[in-house]
Every structure is written in C-alpha cells, then in structure tokens.
Amino acid sequence: MSAASVMVLRGVRKTYRLGEHVVPALQGVDLDVQAGELLALTGPSGSGKSTLLNLCGLIDSPDEGQVLLDGRPVDARQALAATLLRRDAIGFVFQSFNLVPVMTVAENVDYPLFLAGVPAAERRRRVDEALVQVGLSAHAAHRPDALSGGQRQRVAMARALVKRPRLVIADEPTASLDSHTAEQVLGLMRRLAHEGGAAFLIATHDERLTRRCDRVIGLLDGRIVRAAAPGDDTSRHLPASTASAQEAHA
Hints:
Keywords: ATP-binding, Cell membrane, Membrane, Nucleotide-binding, Transport. The protein is an alpha/beta fold. It is built from eight helices and ten strands.
C-alpha cells in the first residue's frame, strides 16, 4: 500500500444470492486509489463496477478481504462507524444529480454540513468557497430546475466537495451531459483532484472521461483485467482466455 493511498482493497470478494443461484460480483480484487488522482472504472454491465463503488463508499461490505480508508481497516457492517466515515471522508456524485428540488443551490450544498452539525458561520464560508470552486456563485439562490444539466452536476460536485472528503465516488457523472458540458465537468474534476488532493473513483462508459483520467481500471466478471494509463494497450499482457472474454463483452 502506497503512503498516498486513500482507499485500498485487498483480496475482496463479494457474492449475491438470486433465488437458488449464487452470483460472484467481485472475485479477489486488489485496488489502490491514490490521493489527487482521477481513477476510471470501466467494464460491461455485470462486471462488478457498482459493487466495487458500494464497497469503497462503505455502503456494503465484502464477504472476504479487507477495505482500508487512509490505512485503517473499515467495516460497513458497523453501521454507526461507517455512517460517520461516509459523512466525513467520502463524497458522492451521481448521474441523476440527486439534488433536492425545493432547496436552492446554496441550500443543497449546505445540507451535508448541516447534517454533520457544522456551525452556521462555518457552513456559510465553506458553501461560498465550494460554489466559487465550481463557478456557480451567481446561482446560489436558484433552484435546481432553473439550471442546465451541467450546472446541476457542478452543484452535485460542490455538495460532495464541501465536506472536504478524502475520496469522491462518481457514478456515470457525464452520461447525461452533452460533449461540451461533459468536457467542462471533466476539466473541473481534474482541477479539483490535482489541486485539492481528493481522490476521484469514477465508474463510466464514457471514453471522453477515461481519456482524461490518470488511470483506467477495467473490470470483467468481477476481476480486474486491465490497469493502465489512458491510451495504453495492456490487453496483450492478459491471458488469452481473458483477452477473448474482453472481446466477447466489448
């Protein structure tokens, strides 16, 4: 484990039961997520991306293996401890934004701080700072339905980052955005990661996003089959059976 690792998974396995069948979602995954990097997680539907996000977000726990946050083992089955860690150390950004429609932009960004019991003056300062970071200070009093899709996603990013998390988990954050808006959001994520030091773990099918990430991790049938910088062709290093499986799922 690197000294700069924010989230580490070692030997992680996870299965789900569907009726009489046991479905392996993750099969012995090892992963390090580094501070200040954008790490893209790719793979076909059913490859294990959502399960991996849930484990890293402390929403679920593995059947086997270990999850470490800042070098310390964590267990999502310890509900209170996991909730506190999610509140303080992990931010979430979703494809559907998940903003509260009756709240203003500033109120949406403020909400996680309010839940955490941060004093009002400190909340106002941090909300203002977060909105400056994402370029939405002029829209603080607007409600989400008055914003474009790209602006809503930037509000969601401000809400995730206002807690100053160590890890931001993003699930298809550009899927509903046009190319120009997606490029703006991607540039913002890169700047926030590289300047602010937060790690971004991003599940995506969007090649525009993977090209701009620092590393790309490919999942297939619950296993990591590719780990490289964008543009690297590492499939030649995989066993023939794995490479054939990749092609079949492409």
